[in-house]
Design a protein that fits this description.
Layout lengths: L4 E9 L2 E6 L2 E7 L1 H11 L4 E5 L2 H4 L5 H10 L4 E4 L5 H9 L4 E4 L1 H5 L2 H10 L4 E9 L24 E5 L7 E6 H11 L3 E6 L11 H10 L4 E4 L5 H9 L5 E4 L1 H4 L5 H10 L13
Parallel strand pairs: 1-4, 1-12, 4-5, 5-6, 6-7, 7-10, 10-11, 11-12
Antiparallel strand pairs: 1-2, 2-3, 7-8, 8-9
Amino acid sequence: MLSRRIIPCLDVKGGRVVKGVRFRDHRDAGDPVDLARFYDEQGADELVFYDITASSDGRAIMLDVVRRVAEEVYIPLTVGGGIRSVEDVRTMLNAGADKVSINTAAVQNPELIRDSAAQFGSQCIVLGMDARRIDPATTQERAPAAIPEIGFDDTTRWEVRTHTGADGGRPAGIDALKWTIYAAELGAGEVVLNSIDADGTKSGYDLELIRSVADAVTIPVIASGGAGNVEHMCEAVVQGGADAALAASIFHYGEVTLQQAKEYMLSQNVPVRLNAGAGA
């Protein structure tokens, strides 16, 4: 088994790291540059930076903050939020990002994934996806499918949502599992799979969602949304089949350290790298 990764996530709003529950009621968690430096020193395998309101506000990502974060870390950095074009991807890579995560704009224009992967390589292009559970038997009216060929059918269990920085986002009317497969075929090299239902609850990841996606694609899956303890993170990779576990609240507020998470993984025979990061 390849080493599993532990990845802190910086959700940035107004220049500050914040954390909410299901994308609402955000509370401050600190300065992104300080936190980036801290996680790099503590042995994070990678770091994810999301400007969470860039798409919902209709603006570009906070480039100056991205640059300052990139200057502080030696580990791979994924950046997302407000990415709308191949040129935006180029700008982020030039600013120091190693990977660029595309969410809302990818749903609006799937060819952005193909074009970006062709320009920079699939290893640089991450599908950011926020999914919410739905009842496949419900008769309630659904949003028109943003991408008709991967709209709902009788088997749909999770719906993709976009613009999630604002009050839980907008329904895209497309099947989350089909969307991941479609995006991987277009050239996405990785997926950050976030459960809106679990996000910020600390009640555990949506293991069924993670396993469904991990079984359907060959690209790495990063589990996101719901980590409340080290056991949850281990479940995401062992039961869910994820390649990495992403967490925010438990790291930001000192409830769990990266070292504790990795030591627990090792105790459960899950391979991890204990010496990642500049200061480890």
